[in-house]
Amino acid sequence: FCTPCLQECLKPKKPVCGVCRSTLSPGSRALDLEKQIETTETTCNGCNKKMYLSKMRSHAASCSKYQNYIMEGVKAVTKEPLHNTRNFPNRFTFPCPYCSEKNFDQEGLVEHCKALHSMDAKQVVCPICASMPWGDPNYRSANFMEHLQRRHRFSYDTFVPFCALCSQDYDADEDDIMAQVLMRSLRDK
Questions:
Q1: pLDDT in tens, 140-149
Q2: Looking at the structure, do residues 8 and 61 belong to the same domain, yes or no?
Q3: Do 133 and 72 share a structural domain?
Q4: Which of 61, 78, 95 is the last residue of a domain?
Q5: Is 11 exposed, middle or buried (0-12, 13-18, 19+ CB in 10 A)?
Q6: CA gap 119, 68 in Å, rounded
């Protein structure tokens, strides 16, 4: 995860898992997991040097062969170089369709609407769906609260492949993505 994304997930108001977005509860350190990370061996995909998982992050930061390996992967999945990121619609923050509040992430919008608008029967456009390539910005949901709870229980971006600039490639052809993933997995062996 990049620092801004991780910081967003760890906000004091609602710390959530960076992958599944479920709520994190305060607890003790996972010592068994730490031990497993310290005792599990792996191999650098760049230079083939063996090391423990606990050392991999610092090694990857200084291994030029690993950096080249990562760049090859980025080039393999990027169809065109992206020069202007302003062409991408904002699919990370959303306004509340009932009130003037803005800049909610998906989970924040769901929480906000459940807390403040659960009894509002006004038909509104789902800002999350409207931001997607397949979304209709004019479609008004008959029961927006039910829609939120059924369609947006998890963040879609968790399941969409990333492009070189960490923007989701929502328009990519699924068959192309599958072929690229399979080719990449064969190369990684």
A1: 988 999 898 8
A2: yes
A3: no
A4: 78
A5: exposed
A6: 54
* Token pair 């509340």: residue: 96
How far apart CA 150 and CA 95 sit, in angstroms, is: 19
Residues 6 or more apart whose CB falls under 8 angstroms from that of 14 comprise 23, 107, 108, 111
Min mean pLDDT across 92-96, 105-109, 149-153 is at 149-153
Domain extent, residue 65, equals: 3-24+44-78
Mean pLDDT for 56-62 is 87
Prediction pTM value? 0.42
Task: Identify whether 36 is part of a domain.
Answer: no
Same domain, 96 and 54: no
Distance in angstroms (rounded) separating the CA atoms of residues 128 and 109 = 9
The 10s digit of each residue's pLDDT in 154-183 is: 665 555 544 433 344 555 666 676 677 777
